[in-house]
Amino acid sequence: MKGIGYAILGGVFLTLQSTANAAIGTRLGTWHAATLTQGTGFVAALVILWMTREQSWRKLSQVKLRYRLGGMLAAVIIFSNITAFHNNGAALTVSSLLIAQILATLGMEKAGWFGKHTLQLRLPQWLGIGLMITGILCLSF
User: What does UniProt give as GO cellular component (predicted)?
Assistant: First the structure.
């Protein structure tokens, strides 16, 4: 249950961040907004890390380089979200983002990328995804 709470909190904050990024992007530009967001996020994470006195940096060499560079993906994510937000509005952007995340995650799980048993999708799961996509189509017209 704790994980669901954090997921909901993350979803709310993602929406708030998208709104703030769009406002910054309107005034300064999209890449400026991405830079500001990444910079303030880095500072906030660094302060929290310092406050919790986490000492895991010694294990950094155990993390593959491609995962260490994952933060670079955030620049593309922020740019895409800001651009989509300006073109589509908040509801359609967030809805489309969620569907894209679900489909990408299902594909990755199905391929076994997360090291667990491959996911077996049955009719109810496919119907649920179809209903979500139908909901997005209803939002866009």
Answer: plasma membrane
Question: Do the beta carbons of residue 109 and residue 116 sit within 8 Å?
Answer: yes
| Cα–Cα distance measured from residue 95 to residue 139, given in angstroms and rounded to the nearest whole number | 9
Which pLDDT belongs to residue 29? 93
What is residue 110's predicted lDDT score, i.e. its pLDDT? Answer: 79
Per-residue tokens: 6: 């954090």
**CA pair distance 25, 74, nearest whole angstrom:** 15
Q: Select from 44, 71, 88 the last residue of a domain.
A: 88
69 and 26 part of one domain: yes
SS3 content of the chain, % helix, strand, coil (to 5): 85, 0, 15
Q: What type of residue is 50? A: W
Q: Which two tokens stand for residue 132?
A: 């979500």
- Residue 32: is its pLDDT beyond 90? yes
So what's the pLDDT on residue 132? Answer: 87
